[in-house]
Hints:
Blueprint: H1 2-12, H2 15-21, H3 28-51, H4 57-84, H5 89-114
Helix pairs in contact: 1-3, 4-5
Amino acid sequence: xxxxxxxxxxxxxxxxxxxxxxxxxxxxxxxxxxxxxxxxxxxxxxxxxxxxxxxxxxxxxxxxxxxxxxxxxxxxxxxxxxxxxxxxxxxxxxxxxxxxxxxxxxxxxxxxxxxxxxxxxxxxxxxxxx
Length: 130
């Protein structure tokens, strides 16, 4: 649900806020990229919300791994931007937020030796059903 909220906020962010984040000048392309990122956040939020009812532990582990790597890569990309361009305090907020969310997914997936998400498998016989 956090992704859904951030996505909707990104899509609905007014021009004035984008202008103030851009140092007083409005960049239409940056605003469109921000909105597209918001659409991606909404999609990820919908996927994670829908997956809650799935009982397959391996699938849930894979979702957690993917989200962990996604958030950590985003944090590294923003960190790189922070050090290679004009420093921006908003970037530090994004770096902290992305790292915390990614760390939460990482802890959930890899914590307790990777067994925080239980995988239960029914015994199977070796006969192929036809």
